[in-house]
Amino acid sequence: MLRNLWLIPLWPLLGSLINGLWRRHLSETHVASIACGAVGLSFFSSLMAFFALFGLPPQGRAVEV
Q1: Signed CA dihedral, 55, 1, 64, 51: sign only
Q2: Does the model's pTM come out above 0.85?
Q3: Residue 47 and residue 37: Cα distance in Å, rounded?
Q4: Other Cβ atoms within 10 Å of 45 Cβ, number
Q5: Do 4 and 45 contact (CB within 8 A), yes or no?
Q6: How many CB atoms lie within 10 A of CB 34?
Q7: What DSSP string describes the chain?
Q8: What contacts 52, CB < 8 A, 6 or more positions away?
Q9: What confidence tens digit (pLDDT) does each residue in 15-43 have?
């Protein structure tokens, strides 16, 4: 999971691009769902990375990207 840390900032960026480019064609409900979903996916990715790091021994928890 630590190889997928780039997904954490990608989800909100992707959600803002979708909402910015197609906001006139989407209803307010869809825009809100995309925005909340993007932040939720980013949070889920962060939790996965946290638990992946938490499962490592203390000496192996340093990550350089």
Answers
A1: negative
A2: no
A3: 15
A4: 19
A5: yes
A6: 19
A7: -GGGTTHHHHHHHHHHHHHHHHTTTS-HHHHHHHHHHHHHHHHHHHHHHHHHHHTS-GGG-----
A8: 1, 2
A9: 999 999 998 899 999 999 999 999 999 99
